[in-house]
Amino acid sequence: MPARSADFWWSDGQHDPWRNPATPTEIVVAAPSAPDLPELEPVADPTAATGGRLRLVPVVLVTALLVGLVAGAMGGTLGYRFGAGQAPGTVLGAGPEADPAAVAQRPPESLAAVVDQVAPSVVTVRSTGRGGGTVGSGFVVSSDGHVLTNDHVLGAGGVPPTVTRHDGETVTADVVGRDAEADIAVLHVPQLAAPSVRFGDSETVAVGDQVLAFGSPLALANTVTSGIVSAVDRTIVAGDPGDETRYYAAIQTDAAVNQGNSGGPLVDAAGQVVGMNSVIKSVASSAEEAANIGLAFAIPISHAQRVAQELIDTGTARRTVIGAELDRVSRSAGGGVRLSAVVDDGPAAEAGLQAGDVLVRMQDRQLAEPADLIALVRKHPPGAVVTVEYLRGGAPAQAAVTLVADGD
C-alpha cells in the first residue's frame, strides 16, 4: 500500500487517545453509501488512485459536518425542553405544588379513615409479675377512662399495670376488676384523655366481612392489620395447666394477629368494635414461639361488653349456665352433646330436658362436643332464651331454654 502523507486528515490516528494500542495505525475510511455521491472511476495507476481518494475527502467532511450539525441541534432542543426554567437544586419529581388538605382527605368509608377514627382509642398495656413482664393491648370504652383488655395480659403480678396512649404518653392504671374464665379485665385511668370506641353488634357479623385488628404485636405499638371474618362462633378452649379453662364462641379472622395483640379491638369497616383479639393458633410447639399463621380469634364484643359492665358495676362478673352436667366421655354416633344429669329446677329441667337427651343444635349452631355447648351458653347473658334441638331415644325434639347466672 502506498505511503500516506502527513497532511491526510486520518494520518494522526497513531496518536488518537481512544485507539486500542494493539490496533494497527493504518486507518481506512469506507466511502459512504449515499446514492447521490459521485461514482469513482477505476484507475490504472497508483497516482490516479491517490487522486480519487483525495477527491473523496471533501464529501466525507461535508457529510460529517452535516451529521454533527443535526445531532447538535437535536441535543440542544432536547436539553432546552427538559431543562428550561429549572434552577440549580431543583428536586426531581416535584411537579406542581400539591394541596395538603386535598391529599389528606379520604373517603369516610376508606380503611385509612377508619384507622384515623379508632387508633387514638387504642392503648398498649404493660404488666410486671413474678414471671416477668407482659405486653398487650387495650382500648378505651368510656369517656371517664375505663380500658378493656384481656385478663391474661395482666398476668399474676401485683404491680399496677401501665397504659401507653397512641401518642406515647404512659400512665399508671388501676385494676377495676378481672374475670379469669372470661379472660376479660377492666382498667381505670382517669387522666387518660383519650376518646372511647364505638361498639358494634357482634351478633350481626358475617363470614367475609372486612375487619381491622389494632394493637401492639411484638411490642410494636400502633399497629393495624386487615383481613376478613373467617368464621363465627368458633369454639376455642384456652388456658394454661392449673389455670381457669376459658371457653370462647369466637370470631375467627385471618387478619395478622401476634403476641401483644391480646386485648386489642377487632373493628369492622364502619369503625365499630365487634370483638377483642384474644387467641391465636400456631404450629409452634410453645406459646413463646407462636406467631401468626392467619388463624386468630376474638371474643365477641357483646360478651366482652357485658362482662366489663358487670366488673365496673359490681367488681365481679356472672357466668351463664344451662343447668345440666355434660357427658364428656361417650360420644353419640350422629354427634351432639349428651346430658348426663339435669339440675332440679334449673333451666334445662324447666325446659323439659332430661338426662340422656342429646343436644345437637343451639340457636342453629351445630354441637359436636361439650365445649361447643359451654362456649355458646357463656356467650349469652343470663336471662337469654335460646332454642335447642335434641334427640331423645333417637326422636328429634325442640325446647326453649331460659339461661341463668351460676348460683341463681
Automatic annotation (TrEMBL):
Q: Cite the PDZ domain residue spans from the record.
A: 311-392
Q: Which source organism does the UniProt entry give? A: Natronosporangium hydrolyticum
Q: Which SMART domains match?
A: PDZ (SM00228)
- TM helices/strands, residue ranges: 56-80
Please, which domain of life does this record's source organism belong to? Answer: Bacteria
Gene3D superfamilies referenced in this protein's UniProt entry, alphabetically = 2.30.42.10, Trypsin-like serine proteases (2.40.10.10)
A Pfam family that this protein carries is Trypsin_2
What are the entry keywords? Hydrolase, Membrane, Protease, Transmembrane, Transmembrane helix
Kindly provide the name given to this protein in its UniProt entry.
Trypsin-like peptidase domain-containing protein
A biological process (GO) of this protein is: proteolysis
What family does this belong to? Belongs to the peptidase S1C family.
What positions belong to coiled-coil segments? none
